[in-house]
Amino acid sequence: MANLTIVSVDDEYPALQLIQKYCGQMDDVNLLKVFQDPEEALGYLRQNRVDLVILDINMPYINGIELLHQLPYKPLCIFFTLETQYAVKAFELDVVHYLVKPVDFETFRKAINKAKDFLQFRNSTEQQKKEDFIMFKSNYVMNKVLLDDIQWVQGFGEYIILVTRLKKYMILERMSNFEEKFKNLGFIRIHKSYIVLSSHISSYDAAHVYLKNGEKLPLGRTYKNSLKAYLN
User: Fold this and answer.
1) Could you give the residue range(s) of every CATH 3.40.50.2300 domain in the chain?
2) Which residues carry this modification: 4-aspartylphosphate (predicted)?
């Protein structure tokens, strides 16, 4: 895999030194530039595409959120900041991770690895082929889950619960959006409140869908014909 190209922007030089140190300890990472001046960083980023920007938020002249909005493309982003009140805004901006200073190397390494995973996923979807995992945001960070580990998806209004073998993830997303985003991976709606992977279906009857793991889920009347057509 090609190196993850990174630019870091922080008006505090010790923070930039720490990022340089941490990036130097990681494989497949190329820290191209560091900037204390966010306006200078914006000029560079407008002329040079990078995979990831690591941004402080509270900076003079242009804060990290404003800088991100002014870029002509959308790189991956990790906020690296003392501020805690912008976590919800970061969620809305689809940032990979929100790191609150001080940050140890292991926490930083995990955030960079999430960026690598998400970049790999984003690039692979352009090839229009099935993948063996999905990426999604939950609790302000990107998560990677193997398709084989997914049990079902259940809707609760503006949220969905992704149920896996080991844990449940709450995701701020409507069922219809999830269905549209991942339909090419074999997800199918079986009820107004349930989505499953077709490959995990063992059988179904008039009222239920039975999964290979032994679970039984309701089958909505309006979804019977589409399920039958899909599986046949």
Assistant:
1) 4-125
2) 56
Over residues 87-125, the pLDDT tens digits come to: 777 777 778 899 999 999 999 999 999 999 888 877 765
- Rounded CA separation 82/56 (Å): 8
Q: Which two tokens stand for residue 6?
A: 């990174």
Q: What is the DSSP string of 121-179?
A: HHHHHTTT---SEEEEEETTEEEEEEGGGEEEEEEETTEEEEEESS-EEEEE--HHHHH
DSSP helix/strand/coil, 38 = helix
Listed residue (161, 178, 179) closest to 170, CA to CA: 161
181's tokens: 């985003």
Which CATH architecture is the domain 133-231 placed in? Beta Barrel (2.40)
